[in-house]
Design goal:
alpha+beta, Endonuclease, Chain A
Length: 136
């Protein structure tokens, strides 16, 4: 027999281990300045009245921001993400997250700092697209 709480736990964290959850808790205490800046606009249901979580564990990954209601992940990428190896890792990571039905939006640190209005518009547009697709 499958307990409902275990099913919900799996659906919410996609099987993330206790170690991944613990690491996510540590990352929440040590967010980058760019993550903190974007979090100001996502927290407390400010974005389309949707609940975003920060440093949310999913399987073996930790997402910078995640909205479970529309299965949207938002990643804020620093300079390390420009290296060939990291680009390949990010591409594979996005593929894996897509397999869970999670859409991934990526923004560089510079874009978050210098073009926040554009970032927020792009997030809103993606949310609308995801919610419209869900209705169909």
């Amino acid at each position: 027999m499958v307990r409902l709480s275990n099913t919900h736990e799996y659906e919410f964290y996609f099987g993330a281990s206790a170690e991944t959850k613990s690491r996510a808790a540590e990352l929440r205490k040590n967010m980058t300045d760019e993550e903190k800046y974007l979090w100001r606009y996502l927290r407390n249901r400010q974005m389309k009245e949707l609940k975003f979580r920060r440093q949310h564990p999913v399987d073996i990954f930790i997402l910078d921001f995640y909205c479970h209601e529309c299965r949207l992940a938002i990643e804020v990428d620093g300079g390390i993400h420009q290296t060939p190896d990291q680009k390949e890792w990010d591409k594979n990571r996005t593929f894996e997250l897509n397999e869970f039905g999670i859409t991934v939006l990526r923004f560089t640190n510079e874009v978050v700092w210098n073009h926040m209005k554009d970032v927020l518009k792009q997030i809103e547009k993606e949310i609308e697209k995801l919610l419209d697709a869900e209705k169909k």
